[in-house]
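Milestone 3.1: sequence recovery, worked example.
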């Protein structure tokens, strides 16, 4: 699908566009993603910095120092709680969008999988390829 890809939160307060093709996309099973999404894994697409443009609303932001020492941020709707974006000061050239928040979540299909040591037993997707995540 050609950019822009449009998306938003559950309540509609926040709308955004992704104005470039993703650099990569991953099913991430890291503990931070499991916790933040309250799900066994998250589908995330890494976009070039600046390609994700919020066109309405103002995402809330949560920051924490990750295991690497970098500041990891997560942005979400402060009203309905939908997770939207994440990133890291260690990778300032990119920002991640949560694929399920897109209007058409089938527009991006991850080809990589991140399964760190904290793999959630029984839920990890089985594929041949693996990748490291920002955390
Ligand atoms: Zn919302
Ligand atoms: Zn993750």
């Amino acid at each position: 699908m050609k950019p822009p890809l449009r998306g938003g939160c559950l309540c509609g307060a926040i709308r955004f566009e992704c104005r470039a093709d993703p650099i990569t996309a991953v099913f991430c099973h890291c503990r931070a993603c499991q916790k933040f999404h309250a799900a066994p894994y998250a589908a995330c697409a890494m976009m070039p910095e600046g390609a994700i443009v919020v066109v309405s609303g103002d995402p809330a932001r949560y920051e924490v120092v990750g295991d690497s020492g970098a500041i990891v941020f997560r942005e979400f709707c402060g009203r309905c709680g939908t997770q939207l974006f994440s990133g890291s000061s260690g990778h300032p050239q990119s920002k991640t969008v949560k694929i399920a928040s897109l209007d058409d979540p089938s527009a991006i299909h991850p080809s990589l999988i991140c399964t760190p040591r904290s793999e959630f037993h029984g839920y990890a997707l089985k594929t041949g390829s693996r990748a490291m995540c920002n955390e």
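Confidence is low (pLDDT under 50) at residues 118-129. The two ends are 28 Å apart (CA to CA).
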